[in-house]
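Quick start: what a row looks like.
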Amino acid sequence: MNSSSLYSTLLDFDDPMSALGWTSVNDVVMGGSSCSQFNFNPNGYAEFSGEVSLKNNGGFASIRSAPSNYSIVNIKNLCLCILGDGHRYKLNLRMDNFPDGINYQALFTPPRKWSEIKFSYDNFKPCFHGNPVSAPPLDFSRINQIGLMIGDRQEGSFTLLVRWLRAEVYP
C-alpha cells in the first residue's frame, strides 16, 4: 500500500472474536446443497471454506457480516488482504438492512499467495439474486454489510483466507 495514503480498517481478523457474527447464506435457500463456514485461524486470519455443489440446481456459497454502520467517509478504494485457491470470488457490499436486497458485487480471482487487492467504485455492480439490476450507485460511506461469495457453478471444495479489509480514504 502507498504510505502516503490514509487507511481505516473495516475488518481485521487477528483475534478469535473477529469471525463471530458472520452468517452463511448458501444455495440451500433455493434447494441446493452447498455449504460454507467462516472461522478464525489462530495464525491471524479468517477462513471462508466449504463445498459448492451443483445438485438440485445449486452452485453458490456465501458468508455475510452482521449488519453494522461502518461510518467511513471519503473512501477512495477498498483494499482486501487475501490468499486464494484458484477460484473466482465476489466481494459483496450492502447499503441497506434488508436480508434480500440489492447487493453490490465485485468479482476477483485472488493469487495463491498473500496479496492486497484494491477495489474502486467501478468494480462493484448492483445485483439482485445474482442478476444485474438497475440501482442507485454504490455509496461506500453507507456500507452496512460485507460478504464474500463463490458462485458461477465452481463445483468442489474451496478455501479463501482473509487477513483484513481496509478503506483507503482521501487525505
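That is the whole record. The chain is about 0% helix and 45% strand. Residues 139 and 155 are 33 Å apart (CA to CA).
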